[in-house]
Amino acid sequence: MTDIFNIDPSIFAFPVNVLAGLVILFIAWVAPLHTMKHSIIATLLLIIASIVLGLAPASWHFATSWVFIAVILWFLIVLASATLKRLSAMRGNFNLSNLTFILHHAGMWIAVAAGLLGRADMQEVRLIAERTDYSNSAITASYEASTLPFSVKLDDFTVERYPSGEPSLFRACISIDDSFEVTKGTIEVNKPLSYKGYQLYLSSYDSSGGSDSPYCILQIVRQPWKWILLAGIVMMLFGAVLSFFRSGKWKISRLVLFIFLTGVAVYAVFIVIGMQLHSKPLAPALQSAWFVPHITMYMFSYALLGCTFLLAVISIFNRKSDMLSKMDFTASLGVAFFTIGMLFGAVWAKQAWGNYWTWDPKETWAAVAWLGFLLYIHLRKCSNIPKKLLILTVVLSFMALQMCWYGVNYLPSAKESVHTYIK
User: Fold this and answer.
1) pLDDT (tens digit per residue) in 355-372
2) Helix count (H) and strand count (E) of the chain?
3) What fold, for 123-222?
4) Domains of the chain: which residue ranges?
5) What is the pLDDT of residue 422?
6) Residue partners of 270: CB distance under 8 A and separation at least 6
7) What is the pTM of this model?
């Protein structure tokens, strides 16, 4: 992709990003963009853009292109319009349905807006910490030189191993000098060190040296908008949890229950086998308190969304059957579990890699699948939507889910993925 499609993120630096956020809210308030039609179009455009990003080679830098950013900005405008419209229509009526809607939509707007607009204020560099001397010279992702307001030196490095020889722990003991005092700290995988607004993550080391490694590579992140983004994540999380209570109005049939339980069992077996094949002994990157909640939520979501897919297939071969109400039940619960699992993964990613979301190939296809099933839910709220289109939406969304689960590992972009430890 040529450079004319790329945008310099620095143009959104403070205070431009704050003004841009206010402009988005103003447009959303004055423009009639709150209809279901606008929501469907905005979601569909974001799905298409995400698919292009998921298939595009890393050299395109499509995530920073004008095209991709324009799609996200339009999505934010429509999302804000729908949220503000519901708020104005509530008139103090905070029932469960309204509260769930507001938490979902407002939380998503805050998280996406903070991630997009706050990116320009974010500082992310890599520094080589050596045993011999302090250094404050770092490089950015675009290989530009950067100078930190403090210097770092490696004091000690430890690699612990399982009896099989696989690494079980990486630990770097460092000293930080900011001209006023020297601070000592320890960094492990999934356990960053916080220092005066910066988070220091252990990125790499000299694998041939092991515990005698003469240096380690640190990823140093300063993200002023991280708490705003986290607030959006928490709101979405509560919205997803509340949606379970709303689903109580639907009756679940024996067929749905059987398929769901079968799906849970199948995915559980695959996960257990996968853990035994790829993560036994457990790699340091997977040693996190978020590992079990993240996997468990995805296991239930995959089973429910797989159940939705099977019901859609039944509808294809048995046209007299009406599975849409059952598909609504499984899709809604599946999306709720998927949302929680994805949010747990975002918080884990921040703890492990310094970012809640980076449009990594696996993250991108997770977004495609999630948005696809959200699109189905929105289409079901519209009248006169052909049944074939609803079934097609579910089938394609389930295909995207398979890309997220294992298909992404076969894409060229997977080589750049931070999820390569699961291969």
Assistant:
1) 999 999 999 999 999 999
2) 10, 8
3) Tick-borne Encephalitis virus Glycoprotein; domain 1 (2.60.98)
4) 3-121, 123-222, 250-422
5) 43
6) none
7) 0.90
